[in-house]
Write a structure and sequence with these properties.
Blueprint (H helix, E strand, L loop, with lengths): L1 H10 L4 H39 L4 E2 L7 H4 L3 E8 L5 E6 L15 E10 L5 E10 L18 E8 L21 E3 L4 H8 L3 E8 L19 H36 L3
Parallel strand pairs: 1-2, 3-7, 5-8
Antiparallel strand pairs: 2-4, 2-6, 3-4, 4-5, 6-8
Helix pairs in contact: 1-5, 2-5
Amino acid sequence: MNRKNSLFDALVVKRVVATVSALLVVAIGCGAGIWQVGRAHGKIALAANLLARQQMPILNANTHSWTLEEASERRMIARGKYIPEAAVWLDNRPQPVPAGGAGAAAQAGFYVMMPFLLEGRDEVLWVNRGWAPRNHENREILPSIETPVGTLNIEGIVFAHPGKVYALGSEDLNVDINKPRIVQNFDLVREGQLHGWLQTPFILRLEETGVADGLVREWVPLTTGVDRHYAYAFQWFALAFAGFVFWLAGGLRQYWRQSAAHGD
């Protein structure tokens, strides 16, 4: 009984500061590790849900006024024509991951958002046509891209927005809607108000490949970064384990010294 009490004293009672510090390290390490694992599982679940919705029947933008809830993350086809003079270039977008790899150096560029007038509906569908590199010397010089003329068919995946980046301040309210412009984030509601036209409550991310129009459409998978989250989780759990081991080893050394001094 005395030995048990002595061991408890050596580990905890006589090392209150060390015990509290170890508990904090273990709690922080385990908490952060669990959070990183949760983020990885969340990305995997989102990717699985997206894949499942893409397997559902393809929607047609020309036959029905779809809501965001009905169409979100579904494949959709549309027929109409682009309105290139009203294009919106989204700045500070990273280079998409190339096919077959994820280790390419990042490059600044634009997402090209272009309105697409639906045939027979007098309604506009905003299309994320893809990524284009930014001019390193002058960001105002837009890269040259090709835009099909006339009526055509397109296909892609429906999203609520093309993704957002951090921006300081608000966008300029005095804009010329009759020429392409550069912005940080895309506001679907505001675009409808600026142009005064009827538009769908979502955007279409184009999925065409092999088209020589100057745009890249190797979209970043939702599972990108999962391995990194697991690696971070391992580091946090390792930190928690190391904190516990250091605390235990220090307490045992103190206990053995006390036992040796008392001849136990």
